[in-house]
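Before surveying the methods themselves, we first show a specimen of the format, giving the amino acid sequence and backbone structure tokens:

:::
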Amino acid sequence: MSDYDAIIIGGGHNGLVTAVTLAKAGHSVLVLEQRDVLGGAAATEEVFPGGKVNTGAVDASLFHDEIVRDLFLKMAGLEFIENPAALFAPQPDGRALTLWTDEQKTVADIARFSPRDAQKYPAFVQQVNGMTAVLRSMMLTPPPDLAALGVNDLAAWGKVGLQTKRMGSKEMMDFMRVLPMPVSEYLDEWFESDAVQGAIGAAGVTGSHLGARGGGSTLMMLYQYSGGFPRARFVRGGMGQLAAALATMARQKGAEIRTGTAVSRIQLNDDGQAVGVLLADGTEIRARVIISNADPRRTFFQLVGPQNLEPRFMRQVRNIIYRGSTARLNLLLNGLPQFNGQTSQEQFTGLIRIAPGLAYVEKAYDAGKYGRVSPNPILTANIPTLLDPTLAPAGQHLMHITMQYAPYTLHESNWQDKRNWLGDHIITTLSHYAPNLQSLISNLQILTPLDLEQQVGLTEGSIMHGQMGLDQLLVMRPVPGWSQYRTPIDNLYLCGAGTHPGGGVTGTPGYNAAREVLRALR
């Protein structure tokens, strides 16, 4: 007899979405999280005394509003902060470009760089948001089983096809044309200003081991803007409050959540079916289904064991490309930095991006692909305490800085030796745009790709649970033939970012997986 209907391994946001969805349907659910804090790569932790630091993701604009409504997360205390500026992009020449949520303000700002670009910007926004609306519907639609297309597959993807067709013939053709394009080529069709291209297009390489001239980087840019362009959205109380709201609702629906509880193995019976888990302390817990929020490699190589799977499948899992290239620096500041080109604090209430052109992005990638840290990296930062001062002690501010490219595998060094150098390198780079930054730093935390692997469980430091190239999306994610959250092990499912649609704080892998599990638990 099973102790629970479902055991979920990992208390990241996708695992918690799965837990709420299953518990809401009346099933007994146990969530097991190895760390003492929930949220995984979207957690908030007290790294500094009195400082609530977002140690992973900072922007919640991708999290699906449908999931917020369906799981009643606002009733559980989830509150979003909408901000007047989406993106602030200081430039090497001392100017700065701001993308506001107010389109006319953005047009006026772009006109200082290029009147031609300012004129084209509204049409660009319309096209991007038309395309991302289709992508957004795809994200909540599990990939079809190409080996056995059923009525449900055809009905679900028929709705996506109908939405695509409603775009209009020209718009539909443009959509299909631009998805595989390099973001540099796509933005060349729209804008001439390096500042505009860099500010918008750097999103196309987020979390990936691609440059701006890499095929499919336009798709990644659109994916990153699938919450609406231009937009940045933060969670009041820190990103970890999303996990807290999910945990609150899961518990209200009867789910049990244990932190500080590591799973050492997924237990199989003599028929090769998943029947439970073995904890690190030797405790065995049984369930009708096991759902892993860990990435595919960690799930199958560490928790299941290659000896329990067919060699062909294990080769496919082994061949998943991770190649993390992201590092993180969190700063506690004694005041606000003053940026070049800044005229008001409102300008950096959203994200702050150092990417003055797509040639800059490509050169940063050139270093990373050869196993070197980019000498002029892409930086994306935010200062959450501007809109939520409760996150830091009175009079102080937090600054989160995400850096690319910092390859997981260094060519001539290692991350133990390069850790402090990396922090200095990020600070020096940002100080070219915010000259008083160095003097404000009270404390700091450096997270290398190795730290992201060892502390958060991200294989090779990949924040997306695997690269999101065209070869690792839709029916190819995580591997061909197993894109519908099921696995070759009966009763074992995946619900993490290594499944469709991929990484980012969307909640959709967990939501889709839960609906698949519900069919099995009927």
About this structure: Residues 138 and 461 are 26 Å apart (CA to CA).
